[in-house]
Amino acid sequence: MREEPMALRLLTVTDAAALLQVSKRTILRLIHHSEIPAFRVGGQWRLRETEFLKWIENRERSKYQTPKPRLTEQN
Question: What confidence tens digit (pLDDT) does each residue in 27-74 have?
């Protein structure tokens, strides 16, 4: 018995910007700083919807976690 392949949905920079309610420039900056997983297709950026949604969830989780104290060197 064959399994049905998952539907692959790709988002454009415009789609991603609309979801986050930010500018396209902000999405491009996040892509260029490797903060959002994305890849190029024919010179245009695409984001896998599932990976983008995971990225959002991870950001939400990390926002509510208390930061770990930093260790500093003492002389």
Answer: 999 999 999 999 999 999 999 999 999 999 998 888 766 556 666 665
Q: Which two tokens stand for residue 35?
A: 């903060």
State the amino acid at position 5 in one-letter form: P
> Which pLDDT value is given to residue 74?
59
Label each residue of the chain as H, E or C: CCCCCCCCCEECHHHHHHHHCCCHHHHHHHHHCCCCCCEEECCEEEEEHHHHHHHHHHHHHHHHCCCCCCCCCCC
Burial bucket for residue 60 (CB in 10 Å: 0-12, 13-18, 19+):
exposed
Q: What is the pTM of this model?
A: 0.72
Domain boundaries, the chain: 10-56
Burial code (b: 16+ CB inside 10 Å, e: under 16) for 40-51 equals eeeeebbbbbee
